[in-house]
Amino acid sequence: ETIRPGVFLALTIDSLLLLVEASLQLCCRLIGPSHFASELNYANAMATAGWFTKAGETKRSAHRKRYFVLDEGDKTIKYFVSAGDNGLGKDNKGTISLANTESISCDDPKITIYNPDRTWELTAEKPGQVEDWAEKLADITSIPISGRKKINSKNMTDLMTGLGPATAKGEDVNQGVSELFADRMEVRSVTLQRASKEARYGVQFSPYEGVSDGVTICGVTPGGPGHGVVAVRERVVGINGSSCAGMTYDAAVNLMRKVVGDTWSILKLDVEFRELWGTVAHDYEATNEQEVSLKVGQKIRIISEEENGWRQAKLLGEDGTPKYGWFPSTFVDVEPEPEVVRYIPAGDGTAKKVVARDGPFPSIKIWNHGKVSRQVIEERLRNFKGEGNGAFCARQKDKDCFSLGIVMPSNEIKFILFEKAQGTGLWHADKSDLGRSETLAMSVESLLIEMELPVAEAVPKPEQ
């Protein structure tokens, strides 16, 4: 009997569906229903996948291009040799667990995952890939993710409910509401404590002419009593219950010395959050009384920030009274912060005459001489004719390691090794805390100040 083409097609499709159903049942019998179900869940969980270049675990390890797949089900990232026929990866080479991840940085084209045992650095192959991964990671985890450009309002609202007191190294620090400036939320009260009379508080202040309403912090010693409690560019506006308003620099410093002399173990300060301004890039509608609504183009003062992606703003109401509230940090473009004047701390804790550069610190492109020998750097330093304030230049040993050569005022040449820490990404000198900063240039500048060479001259790389 002749079957019409349309009927034959319908019968064929029905037959295929029956065949697929039979195949699924057979698979369940062969490998077990629970395992087969987990494989199906795994396939359904694959929302994000793509090619990244994975940095080596050590400086000498090779970088590898791998196919990465984000598994929403068990919150892991698996990487493979190839994408495979189904796009879920083939020949698994390893797994990145997100169970104990401390934070994730998504700075296109890189994703950096900070785990207790290792920092993973992945470089994306395509534009926009990092942004898509950042959004998916934010959706399925509660890990702090920095560098995101897209806004997930629900995620931000969830984070808002968990805002707590500022912390350092996971522990509560001695901070609270300022009694002296109770009407100013940008001012908080802190207590610094040192171990002995010989120990320092590890906080440096920038001198100023005339009178002022506060003393600007220009340096905080890593690991010292002030580390994690106060920060560079913040202002001390109150000392042991006394306001700094109308004080000269000498008067403010002498008041601190008197407090320290009377009670050597603690120093109570009222600290104002650093002067940080921003311009609103996207409209934002407040969802509760703790938040503020923002309009595009509006200029705001930022008075505090949390690691979970929120900042606090200070706005002036129509009647001139200040209004405070939280907003998602990615809605506002932050303006560059002003430079702070550094000074050289003397041995007795007093401030020497201010010695600072007239302009910004020289670019690394000037004083990085590339992969040359130590003898070449030493020869170039000796042949450099400067003003007698010291000189410096560097040679590159590998991507995360530089050797800095410095001419001291005595004409002695010192070499100091700078390395980038794998866990924190901060640069430091000779495995110490000297010069610990986010960029090599900032670390070198900090080290030169510590060595009392604040205006040392950069020896330029010879033109080829």
**Biggest sheet layout:** 8 strands, mixed
Strand content of the residues, in percent? 25-35%
Helix fraction by DSSP (H/I, runs of at least 4):
10-25%
Give the C-alpha Rg.
Answer: 29 Å
Number of helices: 8
Overall pLDDT metric = 75
Structural class: alpha+beta
Number of strands: 29
Q: What is the overall silhouette?
A: globular
Contiguous low-pLDDT stretches (5 residues minimum) are 1-11, 27-46, 149-173, 343-354
State the oligomer: single chain
Q: How would you describe what is shown here?
A:
This protein is α+β, with helices and mostly antiparallel strands and 464 residues long. Helix content is 21%, strand content 32%. The protein contains eight helices and 29 strands. The protein has helices at residues 5-31, 33-45, 129-140, 153-160, 249-262, 364-367, 374-383, 440-450; strands at 46-54, 64-71, 76-82, 90-97, 103-107, 110-114, 119-124, 145-146, 167-168, 171-172, 175-177, 187-193, 203-206, 211-212, 215-220, 235-239, 242-243, 247-248, 266-272, 276-280, 299-305, 310-316, 322-328, 332-334, 391-398, 401-407, 413-420, 427-429, 457-458. It has an eight-stranded mixed β-sheet with strand order 4-3-2-1-7-6-5-8. Strands 11, 12, 13, 15, 16, 17 and 19 form a seven-stranded antiparallel β-sheet that branches. A hairpin with a 4-residue loop joins strand 6 (110-114) and strand 7. The longest helix has 27 residues, at 5-31.
